[in-house]
């Protein structure tokens, strides 16, 4: 590392080796390059990424904290996979946060949601629609398109939560960010981009009349689909 780069790192203006390794492994997990239940070995990851095992160990700890990886005694670290119980638990937590956030948002705005509050969510759907090829077969989009859809899907739900103006709910929901991206990766085989767009447009259309119950039904539908 050059003196300039070292100074930048020290000043916090450039990612550290741990941050770079974490970002690389996170990308590989969320793209599916590292599949569910894939063992993460310190030695091989360190050699592949050109960093020390200490750096990789710290990166693994961050991925475990984001719930993108799990660490178990005698089994080491592996990529997170969702069994039925884990999927149901995540969806229940999402409902507790997101449905309550929408309820608070309606209360905050006097019983309705103004278009300004919904605009960020609508923009995320519009961006998703531009990625759709019109092919309704589940998983039909390219990996690059799905990665962007996953990000936009997270943006959509974050926008609904943000409308509540509740700092603690927003903060806790933000901590689910990486896990929600992984959740959508697991859902690829059940959805096309077009169907994701359709479901979320329908949700926005129903929110003004059904309120929080529209979001609850939306989450319950995706849970049933994945469990079935």
TrEMBL record:
Gene3D superfamilies: GntR ligand-binding domain-like (1.20.120.530), Winged helix-like DNA-binding domain superfamily/Winged helix DNA-binding domain (1.10.10.10). It holds the Pfam family GntR. The keyword Methyltransferase does not apply. InterPro entries: GntR_C (IPR011711), TF_FadR/GntR_C (IPR008920), Tscrpt_reg_HTH_GntR (IPR000524), WH-like_DNA-bd_sf (IPR036388), WH_DNA-bd_sf (IPR036390). The keyword Hydrolase does not apply. SMART domains: FCD, HTH_GNTR. Residues 15-82 form the HTH gntR-type domain. SUPFAM superfamilies: GntR ligand-binding domain-like, Winged helix' DNA-binding domain. This is GntR family transcriptional regulator. It comes from Agromyces indicus.
